[in-house]
Amino acid sequence: MSKESLFSKKNRKLLTDPLDDNNPITVQVLGICSALAITVQLEPAVVMALSVFFVLSVANVIVSLLRNLIPSRIRIIVQLVVIATLVILVDEVLKAFVYDVSKELSVFVGLIITNCIIMGRLEAFALGNTPGKAFLDGLGNAFGYGFILIVVAFFRELLGSGTLFGTQVIPLEWYIENGGFYANNGMMILPPMALITVGVLIWIQRMRNRKLIESN
Amino acid sequence: MDVNKNTYTFTFAIIMVVVVAAILSSTYIKLKPLQDKNIELEKQQNILSSIGVNILRDSASLIYPIYIKEELVINSKGEILEGSAFDIDLKKELKKDKDSQQLPLFISEVNQEKKYIIPLRGKGLWGPIWGFIALEEDFNTVYGAVFDHKAETPGLGAEINRSFFEDQFTGKSIFEADKLVSIIVVKGGADPSDMHAVDGISGGTITSDGVTDMLSERLSLYSPYLQRMKLDNEVKSVMSEMDTVSSIVDSIIN
């Protein structure tokens, strides 16, 4: 039996599929809760994307390694324990070494535990595949998730606050207060606009990628 | 091995729990001193920030003693108590009733003028909010304020720790004649001429209201001490005026 290379075509697809054809947010519609909560500004969105990146890839590998030992009746609990342990470890390490980042994330570290993408990938992929593949799948999905998060946060911060990463990008003299013609769209900082932005992204994606359109 | 047998399931669960508990508790014990140090440095950094001294957190322990000259513990009657103000945990104090609370007060010197720093703690939307408010020597005008929070929504309530919000407090006053009116965070924008109000944060109304409540609750406890010190100040200024008057009179007579 010839050993399949880690970066064979099939394995590369594991990495690239979640970016477009099988994106966790816009196609599987998972992880919407965190997409709503932390996309008001770019910075927390980026930090969240990085944390999910770590937790998802490591959890995928651990569950995949244990896949033949986990009793199927308590598998969800086992997955949850693995995720929660990793998240708490991340939180403790951040608090000790990069305190500022941990403050930036605050409650959202905890929210990673309930991020349905992680649970979804563990259940759907890691339980039935080898650790190498599970790792790639984790990376791919975390990228796909992080990419959408950052795009949504980009538009919400730009249109809602006129800033990017906290720096003013829309010239101040454009604002009505300063005699200009522009005003920030206050709607953009409210949670519903995250859903609408995700909706618009799904629309654009389906316009480009015809095979996502269901035939009925 | 049959992984679906009851005994196996139980054994697996027990081993898993023990392993996870061991990993987590050993990490916690290892990292706790580092985390505590961060929290202590951050407190010093926040106190300094309320008097306009903005430094990196790592240098806080060196710079803190340069600015903070005195730490007092008082009670709600305005009496000075024994104890270390820095170590008082407001979270615990807030659970006690008003009269038995220990109130920390930090006195700093900036440009030869004393500033009185009052620690704050209250409730936001999702969790605690806290901060420090520094008063001028007149015990009335706000010299600076900082706020922070545990878990407010980023971009909304979490904005209370941004300078655009904190800077609004500078120059406001907490007393109207002899009555404590505190400072109110107003939804939809405050009248800039109002000495007791600042603009709230769009989308962060509950956090903004939390700041209002925190200020009025905390300041009311310090009010007796502040009133007395204000009175002392006035007496002193009258005395010094009398001195000048008498010296003028003296010079005229001579």
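qc> The mean pLDDT of chain A is 83.
qc> done
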